[in-house]
Amino acid sequence: MKTAVKTVLYTLKKWQDRNREEVTKSVCSATMNVGKISGGLYIEMSTPKRMQLVIPFLPLVRMLVLHPTTQEEKEVSEGETALKEKMDRLLEDEALHGAVAGVSIRHAYSGEVVYEKNAHLRLTPASNTKLFTGAAALETLGSEYTFTTELWTDGGIDDGTLEGNLYLKGKGDPTLTVEDLDAMAVSLREKGIKEVTGDVIADDSWYDKIRLSPGILWSQESEYYASQVSALTVSPDQDYDAGTVLIRVTPGKKEGQPASIKVTPDNEYVAILNRTKTGKAKTEDELKVEREHGTNKILVEGTLEVGDPVSKSWVAVFEPTGLVTELFHQSLVKQGVRVKGSRTTFAETPERATRLYEHSSMPLKELFLPFMKLSNNGHAEVLVKEMGKVVHDEGSWEKGLEVIGAKMRCLGVNMDTIQLNDGSGMSATNFIPAHEISQLLFQVQEKEWFPEFRRSLPVAGNERRFVGGTLRQRMQGTSAEGNVRAKTGTLSGVSSLSGYVTTKDREPLIFAMVFNHFLSEDVDEIEDRLAVILSEHQLSV
Prior knowledge:
alpha+beta, five-stranded antiparallel β-sheet, five-stranded mixed β-sheet
């Protein structure tokens, strides 16, 4: 009953602030009808559980507003006042002088705001943008959704020979690996195919040809977190950084020797320029691994010491579709399948082609672990394009962002005060108020897919990589450890942390904090202190 009353109070506040239509929009999980009865206005709420709550409006106002507050309400008010004092003191930290802090804290049950500061200012949220992308993807695609990669042919099979072309059609799977390509080649061998008379053709037409989101700078193009987006792409390992290769650099056994370099997956699509040496790294150039702009030449230069551990770097490739064709041809060779035609052709699969094989990715609920725990930018942008393709039959950022906007409105988020230019948060021109982040986190709790959404959020202080994620080294040894589940976000001069926490007196809260324009190296410590304050606080004092 306490939860229901809080929900009604929150709804009444909305009624005061907005008109009837906007109140209805603000709750995605419940339909409200406002009408009249003999006692005055009433609010009727029907929830997904088919429960109804009809409350006389004016008598309720008299009861809640005109009557004296109860002792419990007074105590809660005192607890919130004490929390406000703690928050205000924390946000006066010297590291935030001249910066902007947007903070919004709510009761998780009712959505009622407990504390806010600059909560309606539009700020750059960095990877907190993924909360919006992720919620829209689960709502649009569903937690069981999978991506497929397919083999097609426009010819026939005769005595071990495929008379025609072989098409490798990608549909956006960001978790495709060399092992999956090998399995495709095995499937052809099992059909008795030993030769392809035509070409092996790569089809990445499921998405448009724009490879980089608007937020990527040219200087970031070789970074793994800024990889190009293609409907046909491959990942080097189980972090699933699609469109990248892993570069391992091992120092020589003696000073003066060059380091040895290994590329995963092994391929000739990228060319390594080895300008390394083994020496005294503390006094000489540090190791640098970078792809030259507009090419697949990867420059590795710098100095390592004898006995140094292997250095690992993930580098984004130029035109990732080409890397897949190179690797798939290797898989065909391993299975003894000979290709007489070209293996570097790109075209769409004909409508009359015959499908030979289909590989399905892990379901979306499993993909959400590397996506959210490790804050995988490539996954976010693939999800944007996939939503555009599924809803509007156009795999583009423009159409995908339209879908996100529509789903957010359904969830009661005020998109009139939000600007999104990508799905990952790399863009410095994404603008979201902290109030709308906490609003989203409140509304999604009623969704069937919320358990998967919540499970995907990093857990403070848990050192297991796919549990703690980007929070695995933070808030250890505090009351926030294992308690706070939240999404991080980081850009130059930008930091954010938003999620869920339970107070000392077991009150679940939602928090969103976004910091912009700070000059210190980072403000992680302030974010952590804020989360710890919430976990240690007692609202009922």
